[in-house]
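Problem: given the chain below (367 residues), write out its structure.
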Amino acid sequence: MGKRVIAAGHFCLDMHPDMSATLKFQEQIVPGNLIEVGSPTFCIGGVVGNTGLALYRLQKEVELIGVIGNDLFGKLCLDMLEAIAPELTQGIVRKDGVATSYSIVLESPGFDRCFLHCAGSNKSFVPEDIDLEAVAQADLFHFGYPPLMLEFVRNGGEKLTQLYKSIKERGVVTSLDTCMPDPATEGGSADWAAIFAATLPYVDIFLPSLDEICIMLGREIPRSESELSGLADYLIGMGVGIVGIKLGSDGMYLKSSSERERIAVCSRLLEDVDAWVGAECIAACRKTTVVSAKGAGDTTIAGFIAGIIEGFTPQEAMRCATTVGACCVEHEEATEGIRSWEQITSRMEQDEERLPISLSLEGIEVV
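Solution.
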């Protein structure tokens, strides 16, 4: 039987109006103006919809845990999950009096994506929505987007820290992802340095994006390998074991603790603990035709997690991450391009051209 993963946290309905023929839409957003767009597509987003469903499509044993409202959008989400696999709905909590979270994703030629987002039901997500005894039966617990989940932000992130402490006490490997915080909100203005200092000792794998973590910590964006390595060292110094930083088109960077005992707590997943002690490398993105970048970071994480639960070395797990990320961007929806595990591992070994890395790299291994 394969390793079991819990993908929990932010859950939403994503709506994508077709803006492929809509030019300079940002300049057209003025009072009274009408911008004509094409037909919409709907998909389940957030860490649960992107990372969780990508793991499912990679043929991994995964349970989804998220919160929705008892409303039209919530029903649509359940129907969409049911169509993929009925068992995926079992961990979705329905609540009265809250609106199901949704995003309107605006993506037009020549412009980076922007989002109109309603955190909605995610604000009502509390630790009690997670069955800890069920989590104890899993091998890895992955949680994402705490800045959008206010119960995990308030009081210095007390509930976030307690959640991870409780799960680590049950012997489960833990993973945490972040999201870009809105500085005008409670989640965006929180003292994330203090929250991470309290929480990361109970987090085995920390997987933020570079922009997100620098904004949350109030740091400058690293421009060189030494600066990037220094940022990872800072996070490892807070107590986390493995740091994977998403770099957008520059790929993904990995650094892990040099203390063997910190890595050994993941031994139920890592077949070669010593290979992960003090590991450092960067995986360049595969050069491919990009149809849409939505979900790229989340699905890259899914590839990395899949590699870990399969006992891969750091280098193999990183190649797996960027391979899954490439499959994501080659299709319109975040997870529809994710292939079978056999196809992913086959593509991992193909000598595809890689995108150049803009960072100044000196001695770091590129895989």
